[in-house]
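Render this sequence as a predicted structure.
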Amino acid sequence: IGVTIVLGTLYVLALMPYVRGKKVPPSADKILAKVDDWLRDYQPETVLYFSGSKDSVYQVNMWLETMEQLDSRPPIILRERVILQNLAPTTVPVICVPGGVHLMNMDLSTVRVALYAANVGKNIHLLRVPTMKHVFIGHGDSDKLASVNPFSKAYDEVWTAGRAGRDRYAIADVGVRDEDIVEVGRPQLAPIQTRQGTPEGPRGAAADGYCPTVLYAPTWEGWDGDPGNTSLMLAGENIVKKLLKADPPVRVLYKPHPFTGTVLAKAGAAHQKVTALIEKAATERAADPRFQADAAAQAAAKAELARIEARLAVLVGNGGGDKGDEAEASRDGVVDVAKYEEIARLRGEWNDAYWRSFPVWEHRVVTGAEPRLYDCFNVADAMVSDISSVVSDFIASGKPYAVTDSAAVGAEEFKRQNTAVRAATILSNSAAELGELLEAVRDPAADPLAEDRVELKQYLLGPDEPTSIEQFNTAVANLAIKAEARNVGQESRAAASAAEATTKA
């Protein structure tokens, strides 16, 4: 089957005769006809389009909650089955169309705005449609070169979080016009908790009664393998060793980028070394009499985790492995809203139980989809990272952060080149400056960069009011009006041209 639909009961039922028994699955043409029927009934004005590899599914997953909140009820169009198989649960209708010809033959005549989360070659299959306006929304806001990709000029508009994104394109001079840039905030940042006065981080039984948490969240080596992209290879061990030896002590959380080691084996090796350091330190701390664990509370939390995970396994299933053929995916893809809401509630409970299941002073390596990066933000008092959207997102918390100048260009030049580090402690590869970050964590009143972070947050992420989702909805509505005006004008010009030709004849 060339097209997979995860839409609604009517069209799942249309496939049911082919799911069981020995009947031959319907042809792509028949499925396309059913999809077109559904599209004409649903009449979407907006679509979210995505193409990529299994490892890139996070780039579309980060937009699912935003799509669920849009007034225009956008379906999601995917181009690869592997993305469909690994897509997070959502109430938004999803259509998987692997074939370019099939996509170009779909009836998308009601769509006025198409949103793109990545710059990939298959985007051209939808970009060719003139009746809709095309928008690059990306999958993060950062000072990486990918944030000013010259291909972005192919879109009608480019949406950025704040003024910083607009300025990046002006400086890069890659052909994206200022009037085509719209600032919409970052709707995904709503779950990030802000720092209010004295940090609300985890309390431990260290000698001083307080054990701050520092999150180390480096980015990966990048497709070009430039060692300056990530701190892991040149500074990772230095950063982690200094954090582990900090006095007064801190807890270290290490959450690596999921792509780490996929291009450079050296990056993977550095990750393994950092992991080993943290695990060894965790074992040593557990034997340190200064740190006492509440065994009963942790046992209760672990039991709660097991209960939640068992229930989630029933609700979610295998969570992204082999999900059978397209007919089965369509049959099983009807979203049960009550079930979806239960899953969301359970995941929140899981996150709460997870952090209670081990001592609040315990060093930990956090990999996999859960807990999410933003969950780590919320338990951290500070973060160390690299140039990536992680830094821009963390700024929403208002907490102290440090960024590593892995390419060793110097602190001032590093700040000039990278907007997001202008309120950061800049680390050299030796991590000698790490004490400045820890002082800001221990004594917020003496934090010299606190006001700078407030100003930078507004510049990078936009104002708090109106909310980001309100800004996003407004941007969609405004662009839909422009698309409709273009279509009406084009039809009028075509009619006038035809009339003129008839008159001359």
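Summary. DSSP finds 19 helices and 14 strands in the chain. Residues 468-504 form the longest helix (37 residues).
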